[in-house]
Amino acid sequence: MRLVVAVVQDKDAPRVLQVLVDKGYRATKLASTGGFLKEGNTTLLLGVGDDAVEEVVAIIKQTCKSREQLVTPLTPVGGPVDSYVPYPVEVLVGGATIFVLSVERYERA
Ligand code: 2BA
Fold it and tell me: Both ends of the chain: CA-CA distance in Å?
């Protein structure tokens, strides 16, 4: 068994979850926050059989879109504040960030 951990954008979460649950997969949805943008995103946990990993990853890839997001960098610490002009920069946010882990033991009590 494998644990698929997928960080997806909030906008894509309802759809990807619906497709996965409709296909019979069990899933847990966690509210998470990206370390870089410090904005909300969604982390999905799915315990699946080894042979289902590729299908689950394919569904996540198909249903989650990449989007460009504007980020305004913070004022540099210790730098001259009056001459600093914070220009927004574009960041491409996935799609999805997917981790596949081996599960040592799985029980439902
Ligand atoms: P955030 O950490 O908020 O990152 C959002 C986007 O900002 C990233 O999109 C990437 O395009 C950019 N970014 C992140 N760290 C950066 C850095 N040090 N320098 C320049 N740009 C940076 P994604 O790569 O698609 O990541 C989307 C979200 O997935 C992340 O939100 C984070 O919550 C999660 N994630 C991505 N890689 C991860 C990893 N290796 N471990 C844990 N979580 C990860």
Answer: 17
For the CA of 91, the closest atom of ligand 1 is 11
Cα 8 to middle of ligand 1, angstroms = 11
Domain ranges of the chain: 2-102
CATH 3.30.70.120 assigned to 2-102? yes
Using one digit for the tens of pLDDT, what is the confidence trace for 41-69? Answer: 999 999 999 999 999 999 999 999 999 98
DSSP string, 56-76: HHHHHHHH---EEEEE-PPPP
> For 85-109, what is the mean pLDDT?
93
Sequence-distant (6+) residues with CB within 8 A of 89 are 70, 71, 72, 73
Ligand 1 pocket by Cβ (under 6 Å):
7, 34-37, 41, 91-94, 97
